[in-house]
Every structure is written in structure tokens, then in C-alpha cells.
Design brief:
Distance between the termini: 40 Å
Number of strands: 11
Helix content: under 10%
Shape: globular
Strand content: over 45%
Number of helices: 0
């Protein structure tokens, strides 16, 4: 049974930083990817960033490119999302997701591709 546990959310002022962590247990991933998605009230869950377990290729939504950085620690089966220059529009519940299948094409940006999801952590950015 794969479990993903997020941590690191909180309240921060605009321009500040937070680092989210997502620890996976129950399976060691050597292929596939882990992604971060976010969902604001009344909106659909949206892709934020993702990283492949093999090779460490990274992918970002245009809205966070240059401000957020995704990284991984394979030994700890953990992925991080460093969020800098936060804006009020970054306020949302942040969810990590994982899948062990080989990444093909743009699937890494799709919510439907991921088999495993965490419970989410809230990020609130005040203006």
C-alpha cells in the first residue's frame, strides 16, 4: 500500500517562501514520476510541477516557472517543492502524486495519470 504524506504548508506573506515535502512509503520508485498539483476553492486541480525518478527531468506550469523548484531525494523516497516569491494567487491546497509507470509524452501533467495521491497541505499567501 503506497502512502504519500505531504508537509510544509502554512501561512506566509506575499514574497515569502515555503518548502513542501512529500514522503512516499510502501514502495520504492525507480521509474515513473512524482508531481505536485494544487487546488483552490471552486477550481479544478491543476498541475504545478513534476520530476521523474529516473533521470530527474523536471516539468513546471508556466505560472510557477522561475519561482518554484522541484527536487527529489531517491534515498529517502521524498520529493520537495521549494516555493519562492509567493503570490496570493498561489493560495491553494497542494497535493503530491506518484506513479511508477514510464513517463510518455505529456502525461506527467495530467491528474488522471497518477495512481497515488497524498491528502494535501494548505498554502495560504497573504497580501
Amino acid at each position: 500500500q503506497v502512502q504519500l504524506v505531504e508537509s510544509g504548508g502554512g501561512l506566509v506573506q506575499a514574497g515569502g517562501s515555503l518548502r513542501l515535502s512529500c514522503a512516499a512509503s510502501g514502495r520504492t520508485f525507480s521509474t515513473g514520476a512524482m508531481g505536485w498539483f494544487r487546488q483552490a476553492p471552486g477550481k479544478e486541480r491543476a498541475f504545478v510541477a513534476a520530476i521523474t525518478w529516473s533521470g530527474g527531468s523536471t516539468y513546471y506550469a508556466d505560472s510557477v516557472k522561475g519561482r518554484f523548484t522541484i527536487s527529489r531525494d531517491n534515498a529517502k523516497n521524498t520529493v520537495y517543492l521549494q516555493m519562492n516569491s509567493l503570490k496570493p494567487e498561489d493560495t491553494a491546497g497542494y497535493y503530491c502524486a506518484a506513479d511508477g509507470e514510464v513517463v510518455r509524452g505529456a502525461v506527467i501533467r495530467w491528474t488522471g495519470w497518477y495512481d497515488y495521491w497524498g491528502q494535501g497541505t494548505q498554502v495560504t499567501v497573504s497580501s
